[in-house]
Design a protein that fits this description.
With 103 residues, the chain is mainly α. The chain is 58% helix and 0% strand.
């Protein structure tokens, strides 16, 4: 399991059918989609702390197992977060601002 992922606490109900300790890097898309579909706000915050906006957006756009409401909400939130990041970088003159932050 991703050691960084292990340091975050996700709702135990997210993993009723699998032991998350057995998940490797190749399961990141599955992990992200599980949190987007079934996670609560604390789970989403942990997700945004672990993965970049681009990684989460790619999963939201491409995974077929996402609930349409979860997909739409995630894409709306990600678009707003990207716009906020761009605006903040423009105000401070920074380039390459951090891509991971909580919603």
């Amino acid at each position: 399991m991703n050691t960084e992922r292990a340091s975050h606490t996700f709702s135990p109900g997210l993993f009723w059918d699998i032991d998350p300790a057995g998940l490797g890097q190749q399961h990141n898309a599955w992990f992200i989609s599980r949190v987007l579909n079934f996670g609560d706000i604390a789970d989403w915050r942990n997700l945004f702390a672990l993965y970049s906006l681009a990684e989460i957006k790619e999963v939201a756009e491409t995974r077929r197992d996402l609930n349409p409401k979860s997909r739409n909400f995630a894409l709306l939130l990600l678009t707003a977060m990207e716009a906020e990041k761009i605006e903040a970088a423009g105000e401070t003159g920074e380039t390459g601002a951090a891509d991971r932050h909580a919603p």
